[in-house]
Amino acid sequence: MKYRQLGNTDLKISELSFGTWAIGGSWGKSDDQEALKGLEKAMDAGVNFFDTADVYGDGHSEELLAKATKGKEDKVYIATKFCRAGDIRDPKTYSEEAVTAYCEASLKRLQRETIDLYQIHCPPMEILQSGQVFAVLDKLQQQGKIRHYGVSVETIDEGLFCIEQPNVKALQVIFNIFRQKAITELLPQAKEKGVGILARVPLASGLLTGKFTKQATFEADDHRNFNQNGEHFNVGETFAGIEFSKGVELSEQLSWIAEGRENMTRAALRWILDHEEITTVIPGFKTVKQVEDNLQATAVPAFSKDERKRLADFYQQEIHPNIRGAY
Questions:
Q1: Which single residue of 67, 96, 172, 295 has CA 20 to 30 Å from 180?
Q2: Are 48 and 301 in contact (CB under 8 A)?
Q3: For the stretch 128-152, what's the b/e string if a residue is b when 16 or more beta carbons lie within 10 angstroms of its beta carbon?
Q4: What is the CATH number of the domain that holds 229?
Q5: Pairing between strand 12-14 and 49-51?
Q6: Predicted TM-score (pTM) above 0.85
Q7: Are 14 and 24 a contacting pair, CB within 8 Å?
Q8: Bridge-partner residues for 200, per DSSP?
Q9: From start to end of 137-265, where are the E strands?
Q10: For the segment 53-97, what is each residue's pLDDT rounded down to a tens digit?
């Protein structure tokens, strides 16, 4: 496993890490024992960073991480998020009282004294611009409850605003072969300002594994069923904002990326890792097999300059016009 510095913080984290939304909830049926085995497998392979949120299974993924990392608190870093358990548009959700309560609840579930990276969970731009929440996070940092803080954003403009805030140390963004907009401006500016980048939705909710057909169906409690058109939260979080059947067509046209890289999953993750501005990529998982497959992305060949150009052109001509929602 290779490690990359998280911006200008003191954290050096595995370039491939894992998100825990899928094992917490909203991705269909999951098995806690399998999830714990998957977390153990990841740590055995050198993964030292996991991303979660207080709303993933109403705190369940945080509790799973507490079990998996017990005794390893000083070696395994955890990033969690807050605000979506409340009304994300209400300034009261970001008050000192509310954020402190969110933070302390996460600390209790994680069984930790300090959160390594505390992230605002996709707040509206007007909340960010008011600045209140950053002052609250500064105070929590001074109190030792959080080590560093960052923001998970939906749009490039939100990201560009956040990296101007002096104590924002990390940005979490949707970034994959279907979502390349960050390359032009956000990634280089974040690097220049010493802000780490966590790449989420790296496989476009599974589309970039190449395993789906247009006839695929998803369980009722899977966001790939109930949020296909952004019914419950930003449409970009599901299939990177692309309508499912169109996404299947586009992924079929990208099957060539697997050549020499074993499969599309590993190739899609490798493409993200080829961008030096990315600190870590955080695929999700529900099984040990998925963890093992994702880990192999670090060992497959990088993309050549010509291949990257081909993917950039494909994005502009075929993908970009099909992305829905603000980004």
A1: 295
A2: no
A3: beeeebbebbeebbeeebbbbbbbb
A4: 3.20.20.100
A5: unpaired
A6: yes
A7: no
A8: 174
A9: 146-152, 168-174, 196-200
A10: 999 999 999 999 999 999 999 999 999 999 999 999 999 999 999
